[in-house]
Design a protein that fits this description.
- The chain has about 170 residues and is of the alpha+beta class.
- The strands form 2 sheets. It has a 3-stranded antiparallel sheet. It has a two-stranded antiparallel sheet with strand order 1-2.
- Helix 2 runs antiparallel to helix 3.
- It is elongated, with a radius of gyration of 20 Å.
- It starts with about 25 loop residues before the first strand and ends with a helix.
- The structure holds zinc ion (ZN).
- The site of zinc ion has 8 residues, from helix 2.
């Protein structure tokens, strides 16, 4: 069965690197939280967290991932949580160091370190996830290296591609 024109089905390829080495279907969740939410962190972790939950966009897929990308993804989730925890700790450290030294400079210096960790962790995350050329509540489009762009949401399309895969 082929899909009608507009949405070509996903290729038999890793959605992260486009490779085809021992592919396996993996649950991939992508949450997009607008960056400006974190400026509300000074108001408290709870209000900022609730705001983040309210405005974030979340989609879950089952997509093919190759062996080496699967291995990297295992590391990525650990790196991700270590980065989040160290950022939270650093924010408290920044407040304490700032108060002890009576210095905004010390406060901002430690805070900048948390920013660097968050940025680096984000870059690493990007390399272990599919590249999304469109990611909104209504539509998600993937860019698979060497294969092109594929719409993976709305979900009827994903169901089609899964039945195609079983037919192979
Ligand atoms: Zn791969």
């Amino acid at each position: 069965m082929t899909n009608a024109g507009e949405y070509p089905s996903l290729p038999e390829a890793c959605v992260i690197c486009g490779g085809s080495d021992s592919l396996e279907a993996q649950a991939i969740t992508r949450v997009f939280t607008p960056g400006w939410v974190w400026f509300f962190l000074p108001l408290g972790v709870l209000p900022a967290g609730l705001l983040a939950l309210a405005v974030q966009i979340k989609h879950q897929f089952s997509m093919l991932v190759c062996r080496s990308c699967r291995a990297r993804r295992v590391w990525a989730s650990a790196v991700h949580w270590v980065a989040i925890l160290s950022c939270l700790v650093l924010i408290f450290v920044a407040i304490i160091v700032g108060l002890l030294n009576q210095s905004w400079l010390a406060f901002l210096g430690v805070l900048a370190l948390a920013g660097v960790i968050a940025f680096a962790s984000g870059r690493f995350d990007d390399r272990t996830n599919p590249r999304y050329s469109v990611f909104t509540r209504e539509k998600v489009e993937l860019e698979i290296p060497g294969r092109g762009r594929f719409v993976v949401f709305p979900p009827w399309h994903l169901l089609n591609s899964e039945s195609n895969r079983r037919a192979l």
